Amino acid sequence: MESEKHLAISAVIAHIDHGKTTLIDSLIASQGIISKSSAGNLRYLDTRTDEQQRGITLKLSVVSLEEKNTNNSHIIIDTPGHVDFETYILRTSYLTDNFIIVIDILEGITPRMISLLNYTKNRKCILVINKIDKLLYLSLDELYCQIETIIHKINTLIGSDMFFWENNNVIIACSILCYGLNFNTFYKKIDKNFKEKRESINDITKIGNKENISQNKNIKYLQSASLKNAVKFILFIEDKIAKKDIENLIKRFQVKKRDRKNIFME
């Protein structure tokens, strides 16, 4: 019997120029609709001439994407980031099931983002900390602290610990280079037995309490897939690529040699 098809509607929100439309380009490229080399520069959903000329989104745009290896479909709504288009965000909030919140790691949480968070109440949300390539010159501790600060601040604004790494709803990304890591993606890179281990802690992660997760002795493996180690992994990969020392990485972590973009294979 064919499994039931699931359709989810997700709106992408961000302050202007935080990489929202570029992120959607990357998602579209993952479907083969556009090439990864053009993602970020094409701005596929900015179909109007004035949008392309000004480099900003001026309307609502929609694209349908299929989730790999599942029977799930996603309708992604690209929303304008400028405050003058607040009405569009309001309309979108009536339609969407989920919100994808995009934040520039360098600029952090802006007053505009604070106002946008009002529309996300009682919805499932994904936090994308974007443009990590801007801060690759930082030390591991400095970059990790920057990411943790953003997560802490947005949780404070929301009034709950909605976002944390182990709950798989935080992504550290560089949308212009078509890559991002969440907990699941990172752990798949470092442990072939990921699926079995992940299933064993589903009930714990649903609790949404970082202390419960860190104190449970049966899931010590989570420590190896921690956010700090994910940041360390990205810095390590980027350093090797910069030095053109990638032969071992290709074999171990499936890093693409042919293309600087999308360096983490599915």
UniProtKB/TrEMBL annotation:
Domain Tr-type G: start-end pairs: 5-210
Classification via NCBIfam families: small_GTP
Protein name listed in UniProt: Translation elongation factor 2
PROSITE patterns attached to this UniProt entry: G_TR_2
InterPro entries: P-loop_NTPase (IPR027417), Small_GTP-bd (IPR005225), T_Tr_GTP-bd_dom (IPR000795)
Taxonomic lineage of the native organism: Eukaryota, Fungi, Fungi incertae sedis, Microsporidia, Dubosqiidae
Record GO biological process: cytosolic ribosome assembly
Record key words, sorted: Elongation factor, Protein biosynthesis
Gene3D superfamilies referenced in this protein's UniProt entry, alphabetically: P-loop containing nucleotide triphosphate hydrolases (3.40.50.300)
GO MF term list: GTP binding; GTPase activity; ribosome binding; translation elongation factor activity
Any one of the GO CC terms: cytosol
